[in-house]
Design a protein that fits this description.
The chain has helices at about 15-30, 45-55, 65-80, 95-100, 120-130, 145-155, 210-215, 235-240, 250-285, 315-325, 360-365, 380-405, and strands at about 60-65, 85-90, 105-110, 135-140, 160-165, 170-175, 175, 185-190, 200-205, 300, 305-310, 330-335, 370. It has about 400 residues and is of the alpha/beta class. The strands form three sheets. A seven-stranded mixed β-sheet has the order 1-9-8-5-4-2-3, with helices on both faces. A three-stranded antiparallel β-sheet has the order 7-6-10, with no helix packed on it. A three-stranded antiparallel β-sheet has the order 11-13-12. Strand 2, helix 4 and strand 3 form a beta-alpha-beta unit. Helix 3 (about 65-80) runs parallel beside helix 4 (about 95-100), helix 3 (about 65-80) packs across helix 7 (about 210-215) and helix 7 (about 210-215) packs across helix 8 (about 235-240). It is globular, with a radius of gyration of 22 Å. It binds pyridoxal-5'-phosphate. Pyridoxal-5'-phosphate (PLP) binds near residues 92, 95, 96, 188 and 190. Pyridoxal-5'-phosphate (PLP) binds near residues 67, 92, 93, 164 and 167.
């Protein structure tokens, strides 16, 4: 009954040996800066851009210091200027509104439904009411909304779609890679995402002019020709002087770490999903808990799992979370009013001009619990986790019912 889970929810796997060897070579060379190459050498950062563009099936790619910087660069390169309205689903992490704010944009928050998906009807309503022509779609926690509906609305209303794929690197919708639905997509290689370089980001697009702006904004100076997956020189002729330098280049050391993990990403997706399905099947059997079925068109990456503590409700969830925590099971509650660690609810972003009431989003988040699934957890660990969560959940539901009667 009082079994404790001993592993850490923040312990990632070791960086592959090939990456460590390559990193040592780069450190010995002293050439960490992406434009610091000897004649005939292509930098690690440029090689990464070429390889990631091929992997993502995009024409162009830019490596950046972080996913958040990639988002900000994408917004600027797509044409967001001070005062531009940018639609954004309200369930996401703080770097998303932060990047819109940094680019001078004004977020127009959009509702999610009970499955954590952007609500296409609300997207249409908010787009029509605000006149916004940009939509930053965050595939939060890897839940991919109805992309057919979203792309159709964006086309009809002439909205530029920017995808935040921090949680969908390696995922697909109807066989198409997440990130290939909009005009530009952004990825993160921060430690808790699908590739771990400590910090880092990637931007992909098929739009030559946008790509050229992004490269210059990332801080290329006039060294842009050294990049790996870029449009031809003529495209840079106007953009190179029009785009501000926002200094967000990736260095060769981190690029080497990312390059070495790209070939194992697909296998890691499979390993995440094996762990995810054990948790999903186990949690779905707990009475009074809601674990939505994933959409049939979605090939997701189960690097975390969400469930709704519907029977407990917001009054009892803090106690349940705390009891699980005492047994080593770290659950995050997205409904908390106070931002905690990495999570925050949209109404705590006090710097926004306008914080709307979004009843559907608030109702969904009120019971949303979240569990990280690091690959250092075995399948047996996932079974143990399910057992502890089930015991605590059932116990807390019984307490709640006893108090009510
Ligand atoms: C992590 C994250 C980002 C930003 O990535 P960083 O590399 O940490 O800047 C953006 N969006 C979401 C949904 C994220 O989880």
């Amino acid at each position: 009954m009082t079994k404790r889970f001993e592993k850490s929810f923040t312990q990632q796997e070791s960086i592959p040996d090939v990456a460590i060897e390559r990193a040592c070579e780069i450190l010995k060379s002293g050439r960490l800066h992406r434009y610091n190459v000897v004649p005939g050498e292509t930098s690690e950062a440029s090689l990464l851009e070429t390889e990631y563009a091929a992997w993502q099936d995009a024409a162009f790619c830019l490596a950046t210091t972080s996913g958040g910087q990639a988002l900000q660069i994408a917004l600027r390169a797509a044409g967001v200027t001070p005062g531009t309205k940018v639609l954004a689903n309200a369930y996401t992490l703080a770097p998303v509104p932060g990047s819109i704010h940094a680019a001078g944009g004004k977020p127009v928050l959009v509702e999610i439904d009970e499955n954590w998906h952007t609500d296409p009807e609300d997207l249409r309503a908010k787009a029509e009411a605000s006149g916004a022509k940009f939509f930053m779609l965050s595939h939060m926690r890897g839940h991919i909304a109805d992309m057919d509906a979203i792309v159709a609305i964006c086309e009809e209303l002439d909205i530029t779609l920017i995808e935040d794929c921090a949680h969908t690197m390696g995922a697909r919708w109807k066989g198409i890679r997440s990130g290939n639905f909009g005009r530009v997509a952004c990825f993160s290689t921060q430690t808790y995402k699908h590739i771990n370089s400590g910090e880092g980001g990637l931007l992909t697009t098929n739009d030559a002019e946008l790509a050229s702006r992004a490269v210059v904004i990332s801080g290329s100076y006039m060294n842009y020709a050294a990049h790996g997956a870029i449009p031809e020189e003529s495209v840079f002729q106007t953009t190179r002087l029009e785009s501000p330098n926002c200094s967000a280049r990736l260095d060769n050391l981190r690029a080497a770490l990312i390059r070495a993990q790209l070939p194992i990403l697909q296998d890691n997706v499979r390993r995440w999903n094996e762990r995810y399905s054990i948790l999903q099947n186990g949690l779905a059997e707990i009475p009074g808990m809601r674990v939505p079925e994933r959409h049939q068109h979605e090939e997701f990456v189960g690097s975390s799992i969400q469930f709704q503590a519907t029977e407990l409700g917001p009054e009892c969830i803090p106690d349940f979370v705390s009891s699980c925590g005492k047994r080593g099971v770290v659950i995050k509650w997205f409904g908390a009013e106070e931002p905690d660690a990495f999570t925050s609810r949209y109404d705590s972003w006090a710097y926004l001009d306008d914080i709307p009431k979004l009843p559907s989003t608030l109702a969904t988040l009120a019971t949303t619990c979240d569990l990280r699934i690091p690959l250092t957890f075995s399948e047996q660990d996932c079974k143990e986790l399910t057992g502890i969560i089930a015991e605590e959940y059932i116990r807390h539901c019984e307490v709640k019912r006893a108090i009510a009667s």
